[in-house]
Amino acid sequence: MDNREVSVNKIDMSAYSVKSDNINIQEKSECKSYCVDVKAETLGDCDNSPVSLSPITTGAVAKIPVVLAELAVRFNVTSLINLPEPAMEIKNIKKKVKVTQCMLIQDTDILFIKGFVRKNIDFATRDCSSHNGICGDIRHCTVDVPFECTTVVKFNGTNPAPIANNTSSEFEFFRTNELPNTFAEKDRLLSGDLSEFNQISTEFFNELPFCELISAKIVEFDEFLHRERPHHMHLPVGEKLFTKIEEKMVITLTLKILQNRQVAIGATSTKSC
Questions:
Q1: pLDDT digits (tens, 9 = 90+) for 165-185
Q2: Is the pTM of this model over 0.85?
Q3: Which of 136, 200, 209, 236 could disulfide-pair with 104, CB 3.0 to 4.6 Å?
Q4: CB under 8 Å to 68, separation ≥6 — which residues?
C-alpha cells in the first residue's frame, strides 16, 4: 500500500556556526527568550444559581439522530516507509486514526470506509561514532498510511428509513382537429394535443445516514529492512543503519451509524426547581 511523506524535520547545522563560543551562547539565549514566553494567572471561583427549566411535558415530535447500528470493523494494513536519512533505531511512533469516508449505500447494506493512519516517527541518527558509542540527533518524520475497506452492516438498532424515489409523469389534453380533403367531411381527428408538453415532477430529499467514530485500536508490528554496517564507519557491536521500515497493522474501528429521523416523545412529568 502506498504511503506519502507529509513532513520531515531537518536541521541545518551550518546555519548556527559562529566564530566565538561566547557569541554562540548569547545567540541561543536570545532565540529561546524570543520564542518562548509564558504568562499565567490564577482565577477565582464564580458563583452560579440554578435556572428553572421550561421543557415540553405534553409530548412532542422531534427530529433527532437515531442509531441504526454500532459495529466493530477490523482490517489489515501493510506498508513500506522510507526514511529521509539513515537511522540507528526508532525511539517512538505516535499514531492517529483519521477516517475521511464512512458511507452507507442503502438498499445494499454495504458500508464504505476510507481514511489513513497519521504516524509521527521519532528516530535516532548518527553524527559521529566509535567502537564504544554513537552520538547523533533525534529526528522525526510524519507519514500518512492510507486504508480502505467495505463491510456488510447488520442493523442492531433501527432500520434505515425507506428511500423515497423521485417521480416524473406526463399528461396531455384531448383535442379535435379537422382532416384533409381525402377524408369524409364529417370525419374529425380525435387525439392528444401534439403542440405542447406537460409534466409533473416530484423530488424527495432523503436523510443520508452518517457515522461517528467511537474508538480505534491498532496492533502494529514494524520491522527494519536492509540494516547495514557501513565499512567506513566505526560502530559499537551489533549496531547498524537502516532507512526502510516494513509495517503490519491490524486496525479495529468501532463505528456508530446514525440517521436523522422524526421521533415521537411521550408526555413526561417534571419537577420545578
A1: 999 999 888 888 888 888 888
A2: no
A3: 209
A4: 104, 153, 155, 157, 158, 159, 160, 209, 257, 258, 259
Please give the grid coordinates belonging to residue 75: 482490517
> What is the residue type of 224?
F
Cell digits of residue 54:
421550561
Do 254 and 71 meet the contact criterion of CB atoms below 8 Å apart?
yes
Residues 95-111 as b/e (b if ≥16 CB within 10 A, e otherwise) read eebebeebebeeeeeeb
Q: What angle do CA 76, 253, 256 make, to 5 degrees?
A: 145
**What sign does the CA torsion over 26, 28, 29, 35 have?**
positive
Residues with Cβ within 8 Å of residue 31, at least 6 apart in sequence:
none
Q: How many CB atoms lie within 10 A of CB 173?
A: 8
Span 261-270, mean pLDDT? 87
Report the distance separating Cα 217 and Cα 145, nearest Å. 15
C-alpha cell at 89: 533505531
Cell of 190: 380525435
- Can you say how many angstroms the Cα of residue 73 is from the centroid of all Cα atoms in its chain? 15
In eight-state DSSP terms, residue 228 is B
Q: Which helix (H) or strand (E) holds 29?
A: helix 21-35
